[in-house]
Design brief:
Helix content is about 35%, strand content about 15%. The strands form three sheets. Strands 1-9-8-5-4-2-3 form a seven-stranded mixed beta sheet, with helices on both faces. The protein has 13 helices and 13 strands. It folds into two domains: about 230 residues, Type I PLP-dependent aspartate aminotransferase-like (Major domain) (Aspartate Aminotransferase, domain 2); about 150 residues, Aspartate Aminotransferase, domain 1 (Alpha-Beta Complex), CATH 3.90.1150.10.
């Protein structure tokens, strides 16, 4: 076996991985139609391609409606505004997510209240949700993370019993299912991101799904500067909206990308299954458990790293070594939101920061995942041929077989010693 690449040896992988995003003639033709049609923006709202996408995406998710918008962060804002969350209300959400989850809550005028996650899924712990309730609590934002879904059975029960709005953050969960129903159709509203890395992408963009005609009408007005000039929005109360419309360029690309999504899901599923079979033979690295109620779609595959099986080598050093072998990956893909420098300590733009600073170290499971255990593999690694999976497994086997060398590179070796 060659020496580790991080110590000067040849890397396992030197050729490119599968390209993301995938595109072809359908996307080219869609963009050309927009170019030649002359209506490039989102007004009138929803414009032609946006209206087509809204209907197609709602059908895909299984909801009465979908409203395309500028991005996933403001999808959360719009969902909370459509649910008429009070200014200053508390919204319970996970401590382990992208800062945009909290940012969307703050932009809606509400106060995010973070709680810890479950060790198996890294999603909201329902018991922690219940413990965080106060008289000011009005909503829960449940984040479906990587290849796992929040416990929607329990969260539905909790929110129904207290009359709280249940919003799903589905930025990772396009096509993920819970008891056969798509993410985004289980709460009162579902929020999606179409940013560049996401399973369904136009570079940027978002959408909010719902079965409520009232919420849908509010959403249609809110993304369009508060206008109430269509039959569906005519009876909606006055709302201060903003221009959060999606462009026709984005909507046209999303229509084409949505056609590709089921086949991409199946390709990833087969590759992950092959990867899991090989990984089972490598001690110290394990696959995330899959809740039998859910069907994952693998925006990211988040592995569990056991440092004890690798001579005590810290997770961050292991990730460095894995990257040196040519495998794109991350350990600190997310950190607890209150630790994230993007959750800035600026009371002028982040009124939620002071409260969170007063409650450090309250999220031990999220912290363990972020700083010690989780290894995030991006979904495009599982879109290529079977040889790509073999390369991944070869890199993990190499690090396993040379873990003593990796350990020795951390500790000063005594005089006269050499690698075994």
């Amino acid at each position: 076996m060659d020496e580790l690449a991080i110590l000067g040896g040849p890397p396992v992988r030197t050729t490119p991985w599968a390209r993301w995003p995938e595109f072809g003639e359908p996307e080219r033709e869609a963009l050309l139609r927009v170019l030649e049609g002359g209506e490039w923006g989102g007004f009138p709202s929803p414009n032609t391609h946006a209206r087509t996408f809204n209907r197609a995406f709602a059908d895909y998710i299984g909801t009465h409606s979908a409203t395309a918008c500028a991005n996933g962060t403001f999808a959360i804002t719009l969902a909370l505004q459509a649910a008429r969350i009070s200014r200053g209300a508390e919204v319970i959400t996970t401590a382990y997510s992208f800062v945009g989850t909290a940012g969307g809550i703050v932009a809606a005028g509400a106060q995010p209240v973070f709680v810890d996650v479950l060790p198996d899924s890294y999603c909201l712990d329902p018991r922690a949700v219940e413990a965080a309730f106060s008289p000011r609590t009005e909503a829960v934002v449940a984040v479906h993370l990587a290849s796992a879904m929040a416990d929607m059975d329990r969260l539905q029960e909790i929110c129904a019993a207290r009359g709280l709005a249940l919003v799903e953050d589905c930025a990772h969960a396009h096509g993920m299912r819970w008891r056969g129903r798509c993410a985004g159709s289980l709460g009162d509203l579902g929020c999606f991101s179409m940013q560049s890395s996401k399973l369904l992408t136009a570079g940027e963009g978002g959408a909010v799904t719902t079965d409520s005609d009232i919420f849908a009408a509010r959403l249609e007005a809110l993304v369009n500067c508060g206008r109430r000039d269509t039959p569906s929005t005519a009876g909606v109360e006055p709302l201060l909206g903003h221009n959060l419309r999606i462009t026709e360029w984005q909507a046209a690309v999303l229509c084409a990308q949505l056609e590709r999504l089921p086949e991409q899901h199946e390709r990833r599923r087969r590759a992950v299954e092959r990867f899991a079979q090989g990984l089972a033979e490598i001690p110290g690295i394990s696959m995330p458990p899959v809740d039998p109620r859910s069907t994952p779609t693998y925006y990211q595959l988040v592995l569990r790293y056991d440092a004890a099986a690798f001579e005590g080598v810290p997770r961050d050093r292991f990730v460095e070594a894995l990257e040196a072998e040519g495998v794109p990956c991350s350990g600190r893909f997310y950190v607890p939101i209150h630790d994230d420098p993007l959750f800035a300590a600026d009371p002028r733009t982040n009124p939620a920061y002071e409260r969170q600073r007063e409650t450090p170290n309250r999220y031990p499971i999220a912290a363990h995942a972020a700083y010690e255990e989780a290894i995030w593999l991006p979904h495009h690694l599982f879109l290529g041929p079977s040889e790509d999976v073999d390369s991944l497994l070869a890199a993990f086997r190499k690090l396993r077989g040379r873990s003593q060398h990796l350990k020795a590179s951390l500790d000063p070796a005594p005089p006269g010693s050499a690698f075994a």
